Amino acid sequence: MIVSLYQLTLMIETLYRVDQMEIPSRLYSISVACSDNFPLALQAHREASKVDSTSNTVRLYHLQLLRLHQKLMAFCTEKGIEDRSALNALEELLERVEFLFKNDIDPATTLPGHYKDKISTYVYSRLPALVEQLAKKNIPLVYLHEIHSAIDSLFEEGKIPYIQYRHQDYLIQLLDALRQLAKDNRQRKNWHCRFLILMINFNFNHMGFFNRWKEFYQTDPIFMEDLLRFPKHFSCIRGFAYDSNRSSLLKLMCEYMQTELSQSQQTSLEKDDEQFIHSNFNGKELKLWLHLCVKANITRSSEKKEVAAEFSKLIKTKEGILLTPHTLTKMDKSVEYAAAVRILRTLNNMQAELRELFPDLKR
Question: For 260, phi and psi rounded to 5 degrees?
Fold first, then answer.
C-alpha cells in the first residue's frame, strides 16, 4: 500500500523546491493525487496475502499519510497559504482509510492536530454542563475538577500522556457515560459509589484522580473497602484507559488498599507490643518467678490465681508468648529443676548488685 503513495510523497517532499508561481498548480496536483490514491490503496490491500502483514502494511501506509499531512500543514502555514483544498483532500483520504481500516490502525499513534481540534471542540462544549449536573448529585467536586484537569493535560503540548488515536473513542464514550449518570433521575442512589464504578470501568487512571481517591479512602476506608471488595465484579472496558502506559485504576486502588491494610495491621501489632512486658524467662522460669513473687509477698494479692490472671495479660516469655493463668499456676518440680537453677542465678546476681550499690548492707 505504501508504494501507492510514491507520487503523492514526491510532490509533497519537493514542495519547497517549487517556484512561488507554481505552488497553486502543485497543490492542485496534490489534491488530485489524494483523490486517486484511495482506489490504488484498496487494490494493494486486496493483493496482500497474509493477515499479519496486511495489518502491518496498513499501519505503515497510515503513518506515511500522517507524516505527509504534517509536512503539508507546515508548508501551508509557513507560506501563509489560505487555500486548504490540498489539506482537505489529504485529510479526507486519511478519514476514509481510518474508517475502512480502523481495526488495523495503531491506537497508540499520536493524534494529528486537526483531529485534536475536533475532539477538543466536542469535549469542551459538553464538559462544563456535565460537571455542573454531576455536582448536583453530590459527587465530590475534587473528582470533577481532576477530570477537567486530566482532559486539559491531554490537549496541552508536551504533556504526558500524549493524546492518541485511542483517546477519540475513549473521551467520547466517557463523556456519554457521565452524561447518562448525570441524567439518571432515580431516587436514593449512592451516586458517589456509582460514579467511582464508572471511572474504574473506564480505567480513568489519571494520578490526580487517584490521589483524590486516596484522600477519600483515608476519611472513609470502610466505604472504599466495601466498594472494592469484589474487584472481579467490575466490567472494565477492554483496551480503554486514560493512560495506556500506567496500571489500571482498579489495580492502583486495590494495591493501595492492601498496602494500607498491611500497614494498619503492622501498626496494630506494634501497639500491641507496647502493651506487654517482654521477659527473658522461658515459660517454666516465668512460672517459678511468679511463685516466688507471691510467696515473698511482692504482689498485692497473696492468691496465686489472681496474680497469675494479671501476669497472663501483661508479661510475655522470651519467645513472645502469653501464658494462660492455668499454665502459670501449674507446678511440676520434677521438670523445673533447670528453671530453679536459672532463677537462683538471677537472684544471686540481684543480691550481688545490691551489695555493690550498698556496701554497708548486713549479710
Answer: -65, -40
CA distance 41 to 294: 99
Beta bridge partners of 75: none
If one counts every other C-beta atom within 10 angstroms of the C-beta of residue 120, the result is 16
Cα 292 from Cα 58, distance rounded (Å): 90
Read off the C-alpha cell for 108: 497508540
- Looking at the DSSP bridge assignments, the partners of residue 277 are 315
Residues 203 and 310: their CA atoms lie apart, in Å, by 54
d(CA 217, CA 258): 12
User: Which three cell numbers mark 258?
Assistant: 492492601
Q: 327 vs 81, 84, 288, 309, 332, CA distance in Å?
A: 96, 94, 11, 10, 11
Residue type, 162: Y
Burial 210-246 (b: 16+ CB within 10 A, else e): bebbeebbeeeeeebeebbeeeeeeebeeebbbbbeb
Would you state the cell numbers that stand for residue 144, as one nine-digit string?
A: 470533577
**316: part of which helix (H) or strand (E)?**
strand 315-316
Give the pLDDT confidence of 250-295 residue by residue, as tens digits: 999 999 888 877 776 665 555 555 577 888 998 888 889 989 999 9
pTM over 0.70: no
50-100 pLDDT, tens digit per residue, is 555 677 888 888 999 999 999 999 999 998 988 889 999 999 999 998 888
- Mapped onto helix, strand or coil, the DSSP state of residue 187 is coil
